[in-house]
Design goal:
alpha/beta; 10 helices; seven-stranded parallel β-sheet; 297 residues; single chain; Rossmann fold; binds NADP nicotinamide-adenine-dinucleotide phosphate
Length: 297
């Protein structure tokens, strides 16, 4: 059996997990798990208590970053049992093992724990009130993570983009801007678009801190500023600077398969993270421009 790495990253085949795992790859400090075992990860269904216990057999783990989720927001409405198992039960399983072995736990959560009715940015202490199954089950996951007997941190973030998911919103819009005359994009949700590479750098700082001293609480971590998907598409059009496309606002009623209601304004205030760790993520426009230019090259 191979040795157990010090850091366990769940959701390691996903968009964020892959970006995070890359940071520790050369030191071989971290091991990644996923449901399928894709992308060189270890296959493990975290909804099984026995399978989770198996990940800790050698007692060498020092930290768990739990990024696994059933993150298909409309899929969660279609299959609430799967959403509950992957987002809440899996977190409970990990929190129990971490608690019993005193292993610090970081749980990656979402702005969807809020209802999106606040006109200013949400602080960590603001009342949560999820309006869809994804948000409800992630909030239940947060409760399990924060009840963990070991030090535990919840990191809430929003609207991720990055190269690790070639089907992400940014790539889809870039492709459409290059081939379609009119690109209609939704304008009904405002949040902070966040580059997975920037989020991974921030989570690494939190992880380093947790390895040195106990910590418990919630931190909002996103790129600075806010935008709607329509606003993001307008910026992308500016940067690619070619193609005939006109960017218009889409009618939410016309979008097929959109079952879940979404928070309208779920911008997260990141002041607590900034003052606690002395780090501020750059504006989303800067991060997105870097990503868009990397896609073009
Ligand atoms: N994407 C966003 O815009 C966004 C916004 C805010 C917060 N978040 C949160 O950020 C985190 C990372 O999101 P992401 O977009 O990178 O996720 P993602 O690309 O959808 O990846 C999900 C990961 O979870 C794994 N997984 C799902 N069910 C599992 C189970 N039962 N047992 C073990 N692994 C399981 C998947 O494995 P397989 O690949 O093998 O299926 C995959 O590795 C999630 O916690 C999400 O809730 C995401």
């Amino acid at each position: 059996m191979p040795p157990e790495s010090e850091i366990l990253v769940t959701g390691a085949s996903g968009m964020f997990g892959r970006a995070l795992l890359k940071r520790w790859a050369s030191a071989k400090k971290a091991e990644g798990v996923s449901l399928s075992g894709r992308h060189d990860t270890r296959a493990c269904d975290l909804t099984s208590r026995a399978a989770v216990a198996d990940l800790f057999k050698k007692n060498s783990r020092k930290l768990v970053i739990h990024a696994a989720a059933y993150s298909d927001v409309d899929g969660c409405e279609r299959d609430p049992a799967r959403a509950h198992a992957a987002n809440a039960l899996a977190t409970q399983n990990l929190a129990q093992v971490c608690g019993s072995k005193n292993i610090p736990l970081v749980f990656i959560s979402t702005d969807y724990v809020f209802d999106g009715r606040k006109s200013s940015a949400y602080a960590e202490a603001d009342r949560t009130f999820p309006i869809n199954i994804y948000g409800m089950t992630k909030l239940e996951g947060e409760v399990h993570a924060l009840r963990c007997a070991a030090p535990s941190v919840v990191v809430r973030t929003s609207w991720l983009f990055g190269a690790e998911n070639p089907n992400n919103f940014v790539n889809a819009i870039l492709a459409r801007l290059r081939r379609e005359a009119v690109v209609a994009v939704l304008d009904d949700q405002e949040d902070a678009p966040t580059f997975v590479e920037d989020l991974a750098a921030a989570v690494e700082v939190i992880a380093d801190s947790l390895l040195k001293k106990p910590l418990r609480g919630i931190f909002h971590v996103c790129n600075s500023g806010s935008a709607t998907r329509h606003g993001m598409a307008l910026k992308m059009k500016e940067w690619i600077g070619r193609g005939p496309a006109r960017v218009e606002k889409a009618d939410p009623g016309q979008v097929k398969g959109r079952l879940a209601v979404r928070p309208g304004h779920s911008v997260l205030s990141t002041k607590h993270f900034e003052s606690s760790f002395g780090m501020k993520l750059r504006p989303w426009e800067e991060a997105l421009e870097e990503y868009v230019r990397s896609c073009a090259s």
